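FW: tagging you since you asked about this chain on Friday. Here's the raw sequence from the shared folder, copied in full. Didn't touch anything.
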Amino acid sequence: MTMNILVTGCAGFIGSHVARRLCQEGHQVLGLDNLNGYYAIDLKLARLDLLMENPRFQFRKQDIADTQAMRKLFDEHRFDRVVHLAAQAGVRYSIDNPHVYVDSNLQGFVNILEGCRRSVVGHLLYASSSSVYGISRALPLREDAPTIPVSLYAVSKRANEMMAHSYAHLFGQPATGLRLFTVYGPWGRPDMAPFKFTQAMLEGWPIDLYNGGNLSRDFTYIDDVVEGIVQLLNCIPCFGPKSGARDNDVPHATYNIGFGTPSSLAELIGCIESATGASAIRHRKRMQPGDVYDTWADVSALEARTGFRPKTPLPQGIDSFVQWYRTFYRA
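HL: got it, structure written out here
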């Protein structure tokens, strides 16, 4: 069934991949992005250029925190689905720039919820984050594990989950939160470790290893993330009765989307060294405020609901990323 779908953050890393996949599947996609300067605008514009090649895609430059503009958007269009991926990202950036997160991640999300409620959108899918688990040590992390966020960014994403749950409870608005684990791959974000390490190794710079490199992450390849989102598009939460311990009694659900196996920073560096043929110059630093030591996704709920489990191992994903990096930056 062809649907009209709103994708926010369409010039971002994950948003551009999701929008492209939805267009390829025959859906009409309206992409929203404010094209802010959190990182190089040229990369966002290049992603957008690719999307504009598809006639099923339309773009609107707009800030989700602009309440009047968002109300007008939902008045003008009727969306079958909303995939909300726009947000101010970055754990460390939130320490020095807290107000940006309030505007985008809180005010912006209220505008999305209100638009969905008023225009009766069939299903809202929105990006949460593995960072909501914070310092929880209940590894692997299940959706019903304690959430102990330790950065404003993480708090804002946990707040999104609670806000969506309240709209599901009060208004019956179906919503699904996507707890994404360290996404990487072609067209990736320059502030993420795979990008930063690749750039540094190819240019002969040292790489910063926080906590001396004694960290691990559940690195998740972008194609697996996109597949998980597409699979969940029509998995609409509904009112009870529920069958599982992780189910809610309102039409709201959360799912981890991760590879399901953590890798150490040493493993990541080794993969990049193999893919680039360059050697890393290591610069060990103290743990950064707001960071966590380890992430590890339990993806059994996602697999049970959709039959899909992320499958791209880190060496394969890094090879693909490095190939893209070399081509895009002529490195």
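FW: Residues 243-247 have pLDDT under 50 and may be disordered.
HL: agreed, and The longest strand covers residues 123-129.
FW: great, closing this out.
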